[in-house]
UniProtKB/TrEMBL annotation:
<comment type="subunit">
    <text>Forms a complex composed of PRKAR2A or PRKAR2B, GSK3B and GSKIP through GSKIP interaction; facilitates PKA-induced phosphorylation of GSK3B leading to GSK3B inactivation; recruits DNM1L through GSK3B for PKA-mediated phosphorylation of DNM1L; promotes beta-catenin degradation through GSK3B-induced phosphorylation of beta-catenin; stabilizes beta-catenin and enhances Wnt-induced signaling through PKA-induced phosphorylation of beta-catenin. Interacts with GSK3B; induces GSK3B-mediated phosphorylation of GSKIP and inhibits GSK3B kinase activity.</text>
</comment>
<keyword id="KW-0539">Nucleus</keyword>
<dbReference type="InterPro" id="IPR007967">
    <property type="entry name" value="GSKIP_dom"/>
</dbReference>
<dbReference type="InterPro" id="IPR023231">
    <property type="entry name" value="GSKIP_dom_sf"/>
</dbReference>
<keyword id="KW-0963">Cytoplasm</keyword>
<dbReference type="GO" id="GO:0060828">
    <property type="term" value="P:regulation of canonical Wnt signaling pathway"/>
</dbReference>
<feature type="domain" description="GSKIP">
    <location>
        <begin position="33"/>
        <end position="133"/>
    </location>
</feature>
<protein>
    <submittedName>
        <fullName>GSKIP protein</fullName>
    </submittedName>
</protein>
<comment type="similarity">
    <text>Belongs to the GSKIP family.</text>
</comment>
<dbReference type="GO" id="GO:0051018">
    <property type="term" value="F:protein kinase A binding"/>
</dbReference>
<dbReference type="Pfam" id="PF05303">
    <property type="entry name" value="GSKIP_dom"/>
</dbReference>
<dbReference type="GO" id="GO:0005737">
    <property type="term" value="C:cytoplasm"/>
</dbReference>
<dbReference type="GO" id="GO:0019207">
    <property type="term" value="F:kinase regulator activity"/>
</dbReference>
<dbReference type="GO" id="GO:0005634">
    <property type="term" value="C:nucleus"/>
</dbReference>
<dbReference type="InterPro" id="IPR037395">
    <property type="entry name" value="GSKIP"/>
</dbReference>
Amino acid sequence: METGCNPMELSSMSGFEEDAELNGFEEADMKDMKLEAEAVVNDVLFAVNNMFVSKTLRCADDVAYINVETRERNRYCLELTEAGLRVVGYAFDQVDDHLHTPYHETVYSLLDTLSPAYWEAFGNALLQRLEALKRDG
């Protein structure tokens, strides 16, 4: 991840300034996790009924929550961390601490396990893009 900080600037700071700057990076990481969640949503929104970053569950510096309704009308609350994505609840904005589901590296892998209609929609979109390229190219 690019932070936009010059390493030479950090080496010239006093300890107090360095701590303040590093705390700023932690806040940027939190915003970046939410941005990452928004990117995940935008990437696959076409293949699900509904998907959005939770406004109820708070993002932390290392986690964001995404609500998704599959084309089969099943609702899930997903947790996004550096480890990947996993189901943490079976309703929007619900986190069940007793639920231990596996992490998936990608949203595609997760949706593949949750929604057979997802891959159908994904395949159809891919075919449409290929046909458009064939027409235009």
